[in-house]
Design goal:
heterodimer, A: about 70 residues, mainly alpha, 434 Repressor (Amino-terminal Domain), 6 helices, about 0% strand, B: about 180 residues
Chain lengths: ~70, ~180
């Protein structure tokens, strides 16, 4: 999601952080848990804190976040 | 112009290329981040099944082994190990493309390690159970020397087939389908 929002392809991100682009695919699908080093590299590439991208809990679905934001406004 | 006669070696090269394996190895050994580890979910079952069948034949039908003669077993064994040793210099010494190792990233390295740990666990368990069982069977049924040799040879081939193919099977079945971007 974060990657798509920024218009970066799997291949570009994979090259930037030094992994195979299949690894990015499995990461995004939740089938692979990255090492701390890889998580930090990805966060640095996007210029955000690592907690923005990885969490111990499941991220809330986007629809829920949008609904909640709408209610707050 | 008269076409040049092709040598047996060039025909053998063509037959190897025809299997698609050289292209697959080149794909695996590339540094390209787009490289894909394509799963081999069924092919590795063939050598395991073949080795199992040989072991079962040498255990269950010893007259057949005697009838066929040790030549067949020895021939299959020599062909099998000849192929393995023939491949070793290419794969282990320099790598098929002059590289000493695959360019694994952390996920691929972890999957490779898990595959070999699983395979070695299975092999250890099978051998812990199988070896005493075969020793007891050979004394109990008073196997002739030819049968002992054929069982040992085929058990060795099964071990080699499992060592070569189980990690691939494990990794292939653990690689989920990834849709294109």
């Amino acid at each position: 999601m974060f990657r798509a929002e920024r218009g970066i392809s799997r291949r570009e991100l994979a090259e930037a952080v030094g992994v195979n682009n299949q690894t990015i695919g499995y990461l995004e699908r939740g089938d692979y848990k990255p090492s701390l080093e890889l998580a930090l590299k990805i966060a640095r590439h996007f210029g955000v804190a690592v907690e923005m991208l990885f969490s111990l809990e499941r991220f809330e679905p986007i629809a829920m976040t949008l609904m909640r934001t709408g209610d707050d406004q | 112009m008269k076409p040049r006669r092709r040598s047996i070696l060039s025909m053998l090269d063509d037959s190897v290329r025809w299997t698609g394996m050289p292209a697959r190895v080149a794909e695996q050994m590339t540094d390209d981040p787009d490289r894909k580890r394509r799963p081999l979910r069924w092919t590795p079952i063939l050598p395991i099944a073949f080795s199992c069948a040989l072991l079962i034949v040498s255990l269950a039908w010893p007259p057949m082994v005697d009838g066929m003669g040790m030549g067949v077993i020895t021939g299959v064994g020599v062909a099998f190990w000849g192929a393995i040793f023939g491949m070793m210099p290419g794969i282990h010494a320099n790598g098929p493309l002059g590289k000493s190792s695959l360019e694994d990233d952390e996920r691929e390295a972890a999957l490779r390690k898990d595959s070999f740990v699983c395979c070695l666990g299975v092999l250890a368990a099978l051998n812990c159970l199988g070896q005493p069982l075969l020793i007891v069977l050979s004394h109990w049924q008073d196997w002739p020397f030819a049968q002992v040799v054929s069982v040992v040879t085929t058990a060795f081939m099964l071990n080699a087939a499992l060592l070569g193919c189980l990690p691939t099977l494990y990794a292939s079945w653990n690689l989920g389908h990834l849709p294109k971007e």
